[in-house]
Specification:
Length: about 160
């Protein structure tokens, strides 16, 4: 782990709905109470082991695609799994998921992989179905602030 508290936001953002959620996530993580937190935002297709190994906490964002996380987020997990397996045990994380109908399968697939990595969920996943409204944006902002608080050690 680095001396800098770092929140890694790994996302796949192929739609306007997910872009709105990502922007709310970044805003929430930049809360004034999270002094000393560096927010690093990486697309899932370009994030790698070095990003995870330098993170104090991770926030995952994905669409629900055919009952699963996006292929991009699955690719991220494929790339980082073994290089990070023993070095990131207990890493705090959260997730947000957007779907047009249902997000349960995507949430389940993220839970399975993060359990295998022995990461520690610090909040329930935020699931948004349909166009995000102000309440949804506030929920993902609160999620990122919570995960950020774990990153800086305000919550343990």
């Amino acid at each position: 782990m680095s001396d800098v508290a770092r929140l890694l936001v790994v996302h796949h953002t192929p739609s306007p709905a997910l872009q709105a959620l990502l922007e709310a996530v970044v805003d929430g993580a930049r809360d004034d109470d999270l002094e000393g937190l560096e927010v690093v935002v990486r697309p899932a297709l370009s994030a790698g082991p070095a990003d995870v190994l330098s993170a104090s906490a991770v926030l995952l964002g994905t669409p629900a695609n055919i009952g699963y996380m996006s292929g991009a987020l699955k690719h991220f997990f494929d790339v980082i799994y073994y290089p990070c397996l023993s070095a990131t045990v207990g890493l705090p994380f959260g997730a947000y998921i957007h779907g047009n109908d249902d997000t349960a399968g995507a949430a389940r697939s993220i839970r399975i992989v993060t359990t295998g990595l022995s990461w520690r969920p610090v909040a329930d996943p935020v699931s948004v179905v349909g166009a995000p409204d102000d309440s949804d944006l506030a929920r993902v902002a609160e999620l990122s602030a919570t995960v950020g608080a774990y990153a800086v050690g305000l919550i343990t």
